[in-house]
Amino acid sequence: MERLRLTELPSETLSVSVTESEKAVASLKVDAQVIQQTMDGRCDGLTSNITQETEARIRDVSEIRAGLDELRPIGPACEALKLSVAESEKAVASLKADVQGFRQTMNGQFDDLAQKLARESVRKEEVIGVRVDTDGLSAAQHPCNGLQSRVAETERALSVLQISLRRVSDIQQCLGMTGAAARGRADVLAQRLREESETRGREVSYVRNGMSRLHLVESSCSGLMLRVAESETAIVSLLADLSSIRQHAYLTMNRLTVLQEADETHLAAQNDALQELQRHRIEIQQRLRELQFESILLRERIGLHAGWALVLQLLIVLLPYLGPPFQTSFNFWTLVLLPRLGFGFRRLLIFGFP
User: Fold this and answer.
1) CA 65, CA 72: separation in Å to the nearest integer?
2) C-alpha distances out from residue 305 to 172, 312, 316, 344, 348, Å
3) How many CA atoms lie within 13 A of 247 on its CB side?
4) What is the rounded distance in angstroms from the CA atom of residue 127 to the CA atom of residue 351?
5) Sign, CA torsion 99/100/106/110
6) How many helices (H) and strands (E) does the chain have?
7) Nearest to residue 56, comparing CAs of 186, 188, 134, 154?
8) Can you give the pLDDT of all 354 residues of the chain as single tens digits?
9) Backbone angles phi, psi at 43, to 5 degrees
10) Contact 124, 232 (CB under 8 A)
11) CA separation for the pair 263, 256 (Å, rounded)
């Protein structure tokens, strides 16, 4: 990936040199037109060849530039692939640790682990996406082969340009008697053609270096594909562990249903006992209300007896003043009624007035 990242700098220099080459080609076209006008048709074939070669070079350079633009996004895609594969490896390692811990404990408390495995099984889709990206990266090799063929064509075109340069030098020798202006323009044209050929040679070398570095990416892509295959095998084993965990979970759920049914039976018995206690409570409350009513009646009777006792005490006090007929029965009142009145006072002191 670092080598692939280094190809971006030559690509930028290539784009700058291509821009300069386009400017030089435009100036060469102008010079060719001027030479064509001054030479009176004696170098039409040479100028037409130069024009065709420059147009072919422009097309080749534009195609190379488009190919480089297509290859530039490979670097971020490879980085994203490396990150996703690293995350998948970390997830697989954590899942393996969880499975080992589950196998060690196996105490029935694995609901959280099962949920986590169910969430992490989604990683399979991410691995499939990584594999698709690697397939796209391997498919990017075809435009690289096209670029190689274009570089070979550019080298052949450069050889043709060198031949045309030699022809221009021969024409310059032949036209040495036409004047200083024509010789100067021919010299300038030859110099620019030499510079153009040197620039094209540098561009071809840069492109070939970039292609050689780009071929090194294939080994890292193969390593990524191997890691993806290992991740897939690990995920398959984890899915098998997940199926066994689900079987244990099913057995545990059956046990939980049995325990729940027993709890429901026990809860029904508790509800029956609670209802019986509530019935006893209602009966006790009714009995308390009856006792309260009886206590009210007793207080009323006690109040009535207290009233009669007061009347009798008043009669006892008034007996000496009532005359001889009543004095003979004084002893009877004293011996019979006073103990009863005393008993009535004791009841009043115990129970109180209503």
Assistant:
1) 11
2) 163, 11, 16, 7, 9
3) 5
4) 94
5) negative
6) 12, 0
7) 154
8) 455 455 555 556 656 666 676 676 677 667 666 666 665 555 556 556 666 766 776 776 667 666 666 656 666 666 666 676 667 667 666 666 666 665 566 555 555 555 655 555 555 566 566 556 555 555 555 555 555 666 666 666 666 666 665 665 655 555 554 555 555 665 666 676 667 667 766 766 766 676 666 556 556 666 666 766 776 777 777 777 777 777 777 787 788 788 878 778 888 888 888 888 888 888 888 888 888 888 888 888 888 878 877 877 777 777 666 655 555 555 555 545 555 554 444 444 444 444
9) -130, 35
10) yes
11) 10
CA end-to-end distance (rounded Å), the chain = 107
As given in the structure block, the two tokens for residue 218 are 């294939």
- Whose CA is closest to 79, among 148, 169, 181, 1? 1
49-57 long-range Cβ contacts below 8 angstroms, 24+ apart: 49/164, 50/164, 50/193, 53/157, 53/160, 53/161, 53/164, 54/25, 54/28, 54/29, 56/157, 57/21, 57/25, 57/154, 57/157, 57/161, 57/196, 57/200
CA distance 341 to 316: 11
The tokens 């297509």 sit on which residue? 70
How buried is residue 270: exposed, middle or buried, by Cβ count under 10 Å (0-12/13-18/19+)? exposed
